[in-house]
Amino acid sequence: MPIAALRHGEALPQELEELFLEHCQMVHRTAYAITGHRQDAEDVLQSIFVKLLQRGLTPEVRHHPARYLHRAAVNLSLNVLRSRKRRRLVDGIDTLEIPASGEKHEDVRERDERHERLMEAMANLKPRALEILLLHYKHDYSDAQIAALLGTSRGTIAVALFRIRARLRTLLRTAGLPAGLSAVASAEAEASAKVGLQGDKT
């Protein structure tokens, strides 16, 4: 999405445009990892920068832009998921998926249902936990990098990741994945690959 689209072609403050160009991909990847839909990710990205345009850049945004924008992307994306769950309605373009050559409609439906269970499980994580999870697996941040970004210690992040993975596995089982451990691991790996997560590295 071109930055000019935020204001229908009007010129934007240079500082905001530079912020957009530097962080837009991170925001979009984060939103897509949570929502699972490119249009939702575009909407989250645009909403964040429209709000910044309307309200101006706060000291927090200027001093810690990556921290602020990643957190905003997580929170807005979770709102999208919760709204989608309440409505139980999906946009027709999201459900109209043509299977790849040799892929059956049943396989597509099963894959999408599995992905939806992962999304619902992720929506039940606390925003802070989801921030850490995505920074580590989606954006390839090390424990030390996450700690620096979030203003905490490396040890705290390592412990948090261990607990978050355990919590996510529990939520996936609760969401209806097979009870067998091998089946759960297989389902989790398949669903995780859909959003760029790498699975459990412990």
CATH class of the largest domain: Mainly Alpha
Mind telling me the C-alpha Rg? 18 Å
Q: Residue share in helices? A: over 70%
Helix-and-strand structural type: mainly alpha
Secondary-structure element order, as H and E? HHHHHHHHHH
Hey, roughly how much beta strand do the residues contain?
under 5%
Low-confidence parts: 88-101, 178-202
Number of alpha- plus pi-helical segments: 10
Instruction: Report the CATH superfamily of the largest domain.
Output: Winged helix-like DNA-binding domain superfamily/Winged helix DNA-binding domain
DSSP E strands, number: 0
Tally of distinct domains? 2
Globally, the shape reads globular
Distance between the termini: 38 Å
The average pLDDT value, as a whole number, equals: 75
- Major sheet: size, sense and barrel closure? none
What's the CATH topology name of the largest domain? Arc Repressor Mutant, subunit A
Examine the secondary-structure arrangement and name the CATH architecture of the largest domain: Orthogonal Bundle
Short characterization:
With 202 residues, the protein is mainly α. It contains 10 helices and no strands. It has helices at 14-35, 38-55, 59-63, 65-87, 92-95, 105-123, 127-137, 143-150, 154-174, 181-195.
Explained architecture:
With 202 residues, this protein is mainly α. The protein has 2 domains: 7-96, Rna Polymerase Sigma Factor, Chain: A, CATH 1.10.1740; 104-202, Arc Repressor Mutant, subunit A (Orthogonal Bundle). It is built from 10 helices and no strands. It has helices spanning 14-35, 38-55, 59-63, 65-87, 92-95, 105-123, 127-137, 143-150, 154-174, 181-195. Helix 1 (14-35) packs antiparallel against helix 2 (38-55), helix 1 (14-35) crosses helix 4 and helix 6 packs across helix 9 (154-174).
